[in-house]
Design goal:
Blueprint lengths: L1 H18 L7 H11 L4 H15 L4 H16 L5 H17 L3 H17 L3 H18 L3 H17 L3 H17 L3 H96 L4 H67 L3 H7 L3 E6 L7 E8 L2 E9 L3 H22 L5 H15 L13 E10 L4 E7 L3 E6 L5 E6 L6 E2 L11 E4 L5 E5 L7 E2 L4 E2 L2 H9 L6 H16 L15 E7 L2
Length: about 600
């Protein structure tokens, strides 16, 4: 009978434990688990202590320390599985972490890692090692030990076949060694990261991009709706605040008037009493007047109390309005932070400036997104004597345009890995259009399909033969060359009049233009954002003609200085007061690439 009672108690404890997962712990549930501890011994007690620690580790770190240490004492006597030991060490590490005792946290995470490593549980051991590395780097600022722990994590990640963790650790080590100015090791780790990333990119690329795009679209759509609703609520609250503030002012005036009337009533009352004593003949009349004034006094007192209560209620409503306004402001800040993070991701996938300078020493890139993230992007690849350069303008700007730009960069990298180096610039655009249409499920341009895509100009330069191979989708390019008379002349490399994406008219293969270059020639690729910007003193666009005239005057200027002049012209153009007297807002993302042939 006693054994049956113990068995039923344990069943109840385990049921309450399972039902509390994912929820706030109930003090009654914990009490039942604690009572159950008195009924078991040895490995069963260690197992129950371990489950209790899992429940409490994030809720009550101090109580977790007590039970985890008790469980380890039992484990030292034998009969307890190594998996339970590792879990108890992890509970101690987590509890000390939330108590901010980082030294002890690292100590027990290390014990957990050693147990799991001996068990060949490399995935779990890797997570313990990551916890140690993150504490050393982010909490203890111990760079030396952080390096050791990240290196250990990489070894365990290799055993666990976890490429993503290896990439993250290599990237973190790159930042650490860069901070220490040990650029050799920083470069070694970054190269290892790039190799891992490229190996992983091809297999997971399409699925990841689809999931990221869908998730991001859902989040942005959700946040956009929340902002609109919040703005509507804010406007309503502001209007109510104004009305109620006016009502408070009005009630204050009425209260003041009532108090004045009350004061005058008291004076009249006292005069009436004095007059009653002096003039007995008029006692009845004065008595009647006294009663009347007293009634008025009481009514004014009641009215004054009501006014005070209304004022208090309005003040409470005003405080609630201010609280809601602060909440809306916080939500808006969180959304802005999310978009800023997306901007950092987008900038990370663009070619590094060092790579561009190494391939094209005399060049510039004027890149000015309209918002935090951009629908324009640039891309470059160099293999052997061949350099490929792209300037692209995706459908829309902001977040939608940024999503398209990430697709464009990704597919250009994939195409480059397959066929580059090549002189067939038209083939690159054909393959890019095919991939974009497949990803966006575009077929024949019907109304039910998405019309998203991009306009693009692509130059492939053979540095050895000085031949330029050009293809474009809506976006042309300019070649500037000095003629025999010493004057600079322009040549437009015209693009095909169809986009990268679905096309409502008959779809044709992209064409290729081949140009023999000369030393000193200048090439300019661009999106339409610069030319379509409104400004000036006549409220008009900058235009392609004005842009060409501008770059023709800059041919005796270095490319870096050309960028400064072009940027200053743009800002000066749009800073002119418009019809409403204010400077013009930027209309679209702006991208201009210029380089000189050496």
């Amino acid at each position: 009978m006693k054994k049956m009672k113990i068995f039923l108690t344990l069943l109840i404890a385990l049921f309450l434990f399972q039902s509390s997962k994912g929820q706030d712990s109930n003090p009654i549930d914990i009490k039942v688990l604690e009572d159950s501890l008195k009924l078991v011994k040895g490995s069963q007690k260690a197992l129950l202590l371990n489950k209790l620690c899992d429940t409490l580790s994030l809720i009550n770190p101090k109580l977790t320390l007590k039970y985890a240490k008790e469980g380890l004492e039992i484990a030292k006597k034998g009969g307890v599985k190594n998996q339970v030991k590792a879990s108890l060490y992890r509970s101690l590490g987590t509890a000390y972490y939330y108590l901010k005792d980082y030294f002890q946290a690292v100590k027990y995470y290390k014990e957990e890692m050693l147990v799991l490593e001996n068990m060949k549980k490399y995935k779990s051991a890797m997570q313990a090692s990551i916890n140690m590395a993150n504490i050393a780097y982010n909490k203890q600022y111990d760079v030396k030990n952080a390096i050791v722990y990240y290196e250990k994590t990489i070894k365990l990640a290799k055993l666990a076949a976890d490429a993503e963790t290896q990439q993250n650790c290599r990237l973190t080590l790159t930042r650490i060694y860069s901070g220490k100015k040990d650029y050799k090791k920083a470069l070694e780790n970054y190269q290892a990261y790039v190799v891992l990333r490229d190996l992983d990119m091809t297999s997971t690329h399409q699925k990841t991009m689809v999931l990221v795009r869908d998730k991001y679209d859902q989040e942005v759509q959700k946040k956009t709706v929340e902002i609109k609703e919040a703005k509507v609520r804010e406007e309503i609250l502001v209007k109510d605040t104004v009305k109620k503030s006016e009502k408070i002012v009005k009630l204050d005036k009425e209260k003041k008037k009532t108090e004045e009337e009350l004061f005058m009533s008291k004076i009249i009352l006292f005069l009436s009493l004095g007059f009653l004593l002096v003039v007995a003949a008029f006692s009845l009349l004065l008595n009647k007047q006294f009663r009347a004034k007293k009634r008025a006094y009481n009514e004014l007192e009641v009215k004054n109390i009501k006014i005070s209560m209304q004022k208090k209620e309005l003040e409470e409503q005003r405080d609630e309005i201010l609280l809601q306004k602060n909440k809306i402001t916080k939500q808006n800040d969180e959304i802005t932070a999310s978009i800023r993070y997306a901007s950092r991701i987008q900038n990370a996938i663009l070619p590094p400036l060092e790579q561009l300078s190494g391939a094209l020493p005399d060049h510039f890139i004027f890149f000015k997104p309209r918002e935090l993230v951009s629908g324009d992007f640039y891309w470059m690849s160099k293999k052997g004597d061949y350099i490929a350069i792209v300037a692209a303008d995706c459908t829309g700007h902001g977040v939608p345009g940024a999503m398209m730009s990430m697709l464009g960069v990704s597919y250009l990298n994939e195409i480059s890995n397959k066929i580059f180096p090549t002189e067939n610039s038209d083939q690159v655009l054909n393959l890019l259009r095919e991939n974009i249409k497949i990803m966006l499920h575009q077929k024949d341009g019907r109304n039910s399909e998405t019309k998203d895509g991009m306009d693009i100009s692509l130059c492939i330069l053979n540095q050895k033969t000085k031949k330029l191979y050009f293809s474009g989708a809506h976006n042309s390019a300019y070649l500037i060359r000095k003629d025999a008379t010493g004057q600079y002349q322009s040549m437009e490399l015209k693009a095909d009049k169809m986009p990268i994406g679905v096309y409502a008219k008959k779809e044709e293969p992209f064409t290729k233009q081949v140009v023999d270059l000369m030393s000193g020639d200048s090439i300019y690729l661009y999106s339409d954002g610069y030319m379509d910007q409104f400004g000036g003193d006549n409220d008009r666009k900058y235009t392609k003609k004005k842009f060409l005239e501008n770059i023709l005057t800059l041919q005796n200027t270095k490319m870096a200085d050309q960028k400064t002049i072009i940027e200053n012209n743009f800002e000066s153009w749009r800073s002119e007061p418009g019809r409403n007297g204010a400077p013009y807002q930027q209309m679209d993302d702006v991208l201009i690439i210029g380089f000189k042939v050496s």
